[in-house]
Amino acid sequence: MQISGKKSKILMKAKTSEDIKKLLKEQVLSDPVNEPSHELKKELSYIGRERVHEPVIYVGMATCGRAAGASKTYEAIKNYLNEHQLKVQLTEGGCVGLCSAEPIVDIQLPGKTRLSFSNITEDQVEHLLDEVMNNHLPELNIIGQYQSDIQQPWEGVKFIEEHPFFSGQQKTLLKNCGIIDPVAVDQYIARGGYQAFSSAIARLTPAQVCGEIEKSGLAGRGGGGFSTGKKWAATLNAVSEQKYFVCNAVESDPGSYMNRAIIESNPHGLVEAALLAAYAVGASKAYIFIRKEFKLAIERLKKAIVNAKEYGLIGHNIFDSGVNIDIIVKEGARAFVCGEETALINSIEGKRAMPTSKPPYPAVKGLWNKPTIVNNVETLYNVPLIIKNGAEWFRKTGNESSKGTKLFTLSGKVKNYGTIEVPMGITFREIIDKIGGGMSNGKNFKAIVLGINSGSYIVEETLDVQVDFEALRKIGSALGSGACVVVDDSTCMVDLAKFFTAFFQKESCGKCIPCREGTARMLEVMQGATRRPVGKKSHQPLERFKGVMQLKGLSSVIKDTSLCSLGKSSPNAILNTLKNFKKEFDAHIFERKCPANVCRDLRIFVIDVEQCTGCAACFKKCPVDAIIGSPRYPHFIVEEKCIGCGTCYEVCKFNAVIIK
Amino acid sequence: MKPELEEIFQKFPNRQREDLIPLLQQIQDDFGFLSKEIITGVGEYLDISINKIYGVATFYDNFRFGPVGRYHIRVCHGTACHVAGTSTILQELERQLRIKPGETDKEGLFSLEVVSCIGACGLAPLLEINEEYFTHLNLEKIKDILADFREKEQNTYES
Fold first, then answer.
1. Predicted pLDDT of residue B53
2. What share of chain B is helix, strand, coil (3-state, %, to 5)?
């Protein structure tokens, strides 16, 4: 496509939003295959804010940023700009992934590369802006500068790609996150967005889209790892006058938030993916089912949909192709089981979110008994990239059995944490040591806890296992949803297994007996193992040991007979704890001790006679009158009466109460 | 029937089963909780039996059947928070407020809710009170936070 000299002059003046809209629709979306001309590229770089006419400041305002105080920083910057009457664009950005450095503030001056600063609290704003607005580098925590071919770099500042947290990652899905204004459709299009969809409806048949996805080897990222292309083809081939597409954005794993972070930071990516998926399976309605608590994600997603509608990307007869697709955001009520596709469908229909038996699979008989595809958020974000760059491009990343990249929420006792994207095939050791920057407090690494639906642990011996569906299956683990919580010696694994079991017991929908009753029995055994013996007969070591022995049998029954994957995965945490941390289990059962000193009910408190001043603070507070003594003389704890609540430990001002 | 309820009903003209959950959510947003009268009203409007509505509403965690306090405390209990010691924090809150999760105290000042993963695992353990976040909690901080809110309440009452 060639643009005449005269036209390019008009292009350079494209400043109002109407001009930009016209330009992007006519020059970019209608003809995304041809290489854009030099002038158009330059204009796009301005629209996409790779270059700027006036300074731009971005504040990382996803949930993680807000929790760290980004709202106050934003207000402080706004006040500063008003006070100094500076013409600067202030933008609420998304999350770049490095949550440990929040609040993050990025500044881009005309002609210069973009700088990124970490931990900018409201009181640092003035100093930061005083310096940067006068072209000085402040002595603040600089994360780095963004690499750019067309901008002049700052001297003596490292590139952000060299930061250890980013250098180990491969950002494809997260490429725009934290970089662009999340809701601005023009920025997304100028950086290559919506072009996969517009070219697909113009040039590819739905079957070709399905074929391309199947060829790429994209597997469902929700944990199952089933081929997405094959699933789609089944729905495409099903005969029905109405089909539905549903995006599962429930993300109820208590240890991960990467799906929410990516929606908050780049909602247009999900809208485009949903459009493509709906087109590929022949659905005219696409639902995005998202938890109501994700307020910010919903707000931005809805704004993104409105903006995309203005460009004619959603609705009736999109770009005169005869394709009709409507996107509906469905705010779901909270229940962990909603992550199961049949339960999710029931929830959309206004019923209790209870799973139904499969087959029939939703791909054949789903929402209102019509063929329905349910896909996970992360899976979907891959789709536009595959259509744009081709299946071969996608296959280049990853190892032999798993292709592409994987998102994780890295948290726990590591130095750098946040949302990360790594190529499949990377080892867990690299994730912790390189990206995570090692253990945060110098303590010993104990395990990586993967998502709750996998219930698996990566321990020292398995740290060199690759992130790969097959490799993990071989060691009896599963990748899970993408939580990656690093724990050290101070965590009790038995307590953690109890936490997971309690979670499943609470979230069991109650439809099938193995899950409803089984999880309750498992929890009882776990509570017995982490409690001090009360009464004579119960909880004797032998009884408790028997309980633990029964766990294995119980687990296999639950695994074999539960209706849905929630029930099937509920015993995993316990089984894996028994496998990897047998010693800790034994200490709890036979010695009645918690090596990590976490299980409150197993702690035995004694009073150090040397330290006790006889202030009687513990005596007064003890809820069960287990402390005896006279004022001004050392007190004693009667072990038989003590329930291990720890009140005396907390109220003692002289550190006289110690844990034995 | 309250006129506000009528207004909400008008937003759902289709009167379908699929409207039930969004309708209940909207009512809870506006009224704070679902009372017996409201559920009866919804049942008549959508032509669904009250049993079925209770069946749905009690299934999901976020529907409430009583009012929340002026300060609604949401404690994050995700995996990262649990590892960082949320259980102790929660126990302390229960002790100080004398309520269990899902309850509201007698004065109607505080209510407690446990949620799974607020989405800021790096700042664990954390809680949220009326959309304000409190991070890296310990027992001392809990005492201070509650004292601050009580003082604030006292001041507004006096003025």
1. 95
2. 55, 10, 35
Residue A330: list chain B partners with CB under 8 A: 22
Residues A193-394, CATH architecture: 3-Layer(aba) Sandwich (3.40)
Nearest-5° Cα angle at B75, B69 to B78: 155
* Alpha-carbon separation of residue A377 from A196, A208, A214, A553 (angstroms): 17, 22, 18, 35
ipTM of this predicted structure: 0.93
| Partners of residue A255 in chain B, C-beta under 8 Å | 78-80, 117, 121
Taking the Cβ of residue B36 and every Cβ of chain A, the question of whether any pair is shorter than 8 Å is answered with: no
Strands A285-291 and A326-332 turn out to be parallel
pLDDT of amino acid A3: 37
Contact (CB<8Å) B79/A418: no
**Complete DSSP assignment for A539-591:** T-HHHHHHHHHHHHHHHHHHHHH-SSHHHHHTTHHHHHHHHH-HHHHHHHHHS
Amino acid identity of residue A313, one-letter, is L
pLDDT in tens, A191-203: 988 999 999 998 8
Residue A537: pLDDT over 90: no
Superfamily of domain A56-167: Glutaredoxin (3.40.30.10)
Confidence tier at A11 by pLDDT (50, 70, 90): very low
What is the CATH T-level fold of the domain A407-491, as seen in this structure? Ubiquitin-like (UB roll) (3.10.20)
Residues of chain A with pLDDT > 70, as a percent, come to 95
Residue B58 near chain A (CB below 8 Å): no
Q: Using the predicted structure, report yes or no on whether residue A54 has a pLDDT greater than 80.
A: yes
Residue environment code for A271-302, b if the CB has 16+ CB neighbours within 10 A, otherwise e:
bbbbbbbbbbbbbbbbbbbbbbbbebbbebbb
CB atoms within 10 A of CB A123: 10
Give the pLDDT of residue A590.
84
Mean pLDDT computed over every residue of chain A: 88
CB A508 within 8 A of CB A483: no
Amino acid at site A403: K
Residue of B nearest to A416 (CA): B122
Q: How far is B62 from chain A (nearest CA, A)?
A: 6
Contact B21 A333 (CB under 8 A): yes
What is the fold of A603-659? Alpha-Beta Plaits (3.30.70)
Residue in chain B lying closest to A64 (CA) = B120
The β-bridge partners of A89 are A56
Do A595 and A589 touch, CB atoms closer than 8 A? no
Task: Strands of A159-312 (E only): list them.
Answer: 244-249, 285-291
> pLDDT per residue over A120-174, tens digit each?
999 999 999 998 888 888 877 899 999 888 888 888 889 998 999 999 899 999 9
Bridge partners (DSSP) listed for residue A286: A245, A327
pLDDT surpassing 80 at residue A533: no
- Does residue A493 have a pLDDT over 90? yes
Domain annotation for chain B: domains and CATH numbers? 3-59 (1.10.10), 71-158 (3.40.30.10)
pLDDT in tens, A597-611: 888 778 888 899 888
What are the pLDDT digits (tens) for A468-478?
888 888 888 88
Closest CA in chain A for residue B127? A67
Containing A386, the helix (H) or strand (E) segment is helix A377-389
